[in-house]
Write a structure and sequence with these properties.
mainly alpha; ABC transporter involved in vitamin B12 uptake, BtuC; 14 helices; 78% helix; 0% strand; globular
């Protein structure tokens, strides 16, 4: 005869699972944070010109402007690996926040129109405002990402009922295709196709120290803001009604989270271009490893996202040297099958 477990036993098992998840999360954060600089250092050594690890060390601590290897390390490869880590963390955390506040397991800045909107704004910058400073380009990226988000949510909300996950994805695909077509049309008509081709393909080869200095405090502030809101995001992931019942100001949390997502997505697209699926795959991986508490999901996603994009950038340089493979294409090799798996599982749940 089966007996139901006593409340004390259930509480003990819940606490045990929570401690186990926290233990896994701390290991991901600390071990991943230790692996990340090693992977970045190894990535710096690879490319069209092979550079010994000793030269990387000397370039960092005993720089000589007369040494060609030192110049390559400091001026070209170090900015791009730092940008890769920041972009990976940004896209992953943005995706985690979007999935948490919308309850949509397929939410991602690329699938929800933010990347395409920021790319459209970049096309306008190249066509009508050539020579803009990077800070101004970031501002346009924010506005473009916000426009993409509004268009997708508006299109998904048309008709009866609320915006279901599949409807949001379909609206995101349609709006992204429209904005991408407009961007390409602007590029061809105003003869700036070569200038925006880099952002269309996706890559960090053009990263420089000016961009790093501007994006680092923005990304750091947004990540800290995401961590500060992580408990509220956990409550929102239970459902808006449940969160209101627990006393959460859902409107304020949604607004703050949307601002953080726009900052993370806008800055990232202005650096790397149209790279999708990082914010889709990584939060699901983090959730599988550390559970549903966003106090662990957000930092774990940041570390795992940074590792993924740094690894993708490394692959982009070593697959077909001296040419580079777009990192967006490499990440899509993992992201597309995972998206199809999620879509199929979502369809079964309907």
């Amino acid at each position: 005869m089966n007996r139901q477990k006593e409340p004390e036993t259930l509480v003990q098992e819940t606490n045990q699972k929570s401690k186990c998840r926290a233990w896994v999360a701390w290991h991901i954060i600390f071990i991943g944070s230790g692996i990340l600089p090693l992977l970045m250092a190894f990535s710096i050594t690879k490319g069209a010109a092979e550079i010994p690890l000793s030269s990387v060390w000397n370039a960092l601590f005993h720089f000589s402007a007369e040494n060609t290897h030192h110049l390559i390390v400091i001026d070209l490869r170090l900015p791009r690996v730092i940008a890769s880590a920041l972009v990976g963390a940004s896209f992953a955390v943005a995706g985690a926040i979007m999935q948490g506040i919308t309850g949509n397991p397929m939410a991602d800045s690329g699938l929800m129109g933010l990347n395409a909107g920021a790319g459209f704004a970049l096309a306008l910058c190249f066509a009508f405002f050539p020579g803009m400073k990077y800070m101004q380009i970031i501002l346009f990226s924010f506005l473009g990402a916000a426009m993409g988000m509004v268009l997708v949510n508006g299109a998904a909300s048309m008709g009866r009922g609320s915006a279901a996950p599949m409807r949001l994805v379909l609206a995101g695909a349609a709006v992204s295709a429209l904005l991408a077509a407009l961007s390409q049309g602007i590029a061809l008509y105003f003869d700036v196709a070569q200038g925006i081709m880099f952002w269309t393909a996706g890559g960090v080869a053009g990263s420089n120290w000016e961009q790093i200095k501007i994006m680092t405090p923005l990304v750091a502030a947004a990540l800290l803001g995401a961590m500060a809101l992580s408990r509220s995001i956990s409550l929102l992931s239970l459902g808006e009604e449940a969160a209101k019942g627990l006393g959460l100001n859902t409107v304020m949390v949604n607004v703050l989270c949307s601002v953080i997502v726009l900052i993370l997505a806008g800055v990232s697209v202005s650096i790397v271009g149209a790279v999708g699926f990082v914010g889709l795959v990584i939060p699901h991986l983090a959730r599988y490893l550390v559970g549903v508490d966003y106090r662990w999901i957000i930092p774990s996603s940041a570390v795992l996202g940074a590792l993924l994009v740094v690894l993708a950038d490394l692959g982009a340089r070593i697959i077909n040297p001296p040419f580079e493979t777009p990192i967006g294409a490499l990440i899509a090799l993992v992201g597309v099958p995972f998206f199809l798996y999620l879509a199929r599982r979502q369809r079964r749940a309907l």
